[in-house]
Amino acid sequence: MRRREFIRALGGAAAWPLAARGQPGGGKIFHIGILSLGVVGPRASPWWQPFFDELHKLGYVEGGNLLITYMGADAHPEHLLALATDLVKAKVHVIVTTGPKETLAAKQATSSIPIVFTIVADPVAQGVLTNLARPESNVTGLTTIAPGLYGKYVELLREIIRSAIRVAIVGGPSASSDLRPEVEKAGATLGVTAFFVPVAGADDFDMALTDARHDGAAGIIVIADAVTHAHRERFVQLALHHRLPGIYWDRSYVEAGGLMSYSADLEELRHQAAHYVDKILKGSKPGDLPVEQPRKFQLIINLKTAKPSLT
């Protein structure tokens, strides 16, 4: 079986048997499709659990009135459009996405099924929407980034690593142009030069970190990216091996041994995504639901990692 067919088969397999059970008493079954660039399978990562938990609180029960079809691309963006098309063919009521690549694939696959995104950093700059207050057509959701956040990353890393005059920004190849103005401005103020190190896949990690170290980086800023998140344990261990303390976009990297994270409360955003889905299932139009920006941020520091990293 070809890889794409294998991924597509796994992506939907966990949900399809529920369709036959139906809703006790003959009530309506709500069908939600989840499209992720991350790992295959709805329980392969704890990422979606807060979303599932909140749906349950709102009265949705898998195997009862709720059917969930999960499509994960396993860090292969070239599969996203096919997976989104499969969700459209399955006639889901709502498609819930993670980042911009997934959301853009879903937009390409459908202009009528509502789409709710959950971790798009800058929806306007990344081409997902043109207006946050009045989202267009069938797309709305929650953004993880507030203005100036990446500048804050530079500031925090400089505060922790006083000797840092060069830091590497690690992320997907397309992220550099979006971040460069903000990071360069913050760096100029603090006397820090920030340069971009792209990673397209897990096989790039060691070489990217080797290059960062060779180019004089005293630390790294790891931006939102499905590849590093899906393989975060490996990435963090390589960063520690190269003695590159880092600030990360999600606390799960810190739990894997990374130095620190500063981010929106991503668990709360996933709770809120469930409420967006609930409103849409009850009749609200995506265009009437403004994109929600984060209200609370968390700074998490791994003290065990901090001691050897900073000595």
Please provide a written account of the structure:
This protein has 311 residues and is an alpha/beta fold. The chain has 2 domains: 3-144 and 266-295, Response regulator (Rossmann fold, 3-Layer(aba) Sandwich); 149-248, Rossmann fold. Helices cover 41% and strands 19% of the residues. It has helices at residues 3-13, 16-21, 49-57, 80-89, 100-109, 149-160, 176-190, 205-214, 226-230, 232-241, 251-255, 266-281, 303-309; strands spanning 30-36, 66-72, 94-97, 115-120, 139-143, 166-171, 193-198, 219-222, 246-248, 260-264, 297-301. Helix 3 links the parallel strand 1 (30-36) and strand 2. The termini are far apart. The model is unreliable at 1-25 (pLDDT under 50).
In a few lines, what is going on in this structure?
With 311 residues, the protein is of the alpha/beta class.
| Quantity of strands, as a count | 11
Round the Cα radius of gyration to an integer and report it.
20 Å
Distance between the termini: 51 Å
What coarse outline follows from CA principal-axis ratios? elongated
**CATH fold annotation of the largest domain:** Rossmann fold
Keywords:
single chain; 311 residues; alpha/beta; Rossmann fold; 2 domains; 13 helices; 11 strands; disordered N terminus
Topology at a glance:
Elements: H1 3-13, H2 16-21, E1 30-36, H3 49-57, E2 66-72, H4 80-89, E3 94-97, H5 100-109, E4 115-120, E5 139-143, H6 149-160, E6 166-171, H7 176-190, E7 193-198, H8 205-214, E8 219-222, H9 226-230, H10 232-241, E9 246-248, H11 251-255, E10 260-264, H12 266-281, E11 297-301, H13 303-309
Parallel strand pairs: 1-2, 1-3, 3-4, 4-5, 6-7, 6-8, 8-9, 9-10
Antiparallel strand pairs: 10-11
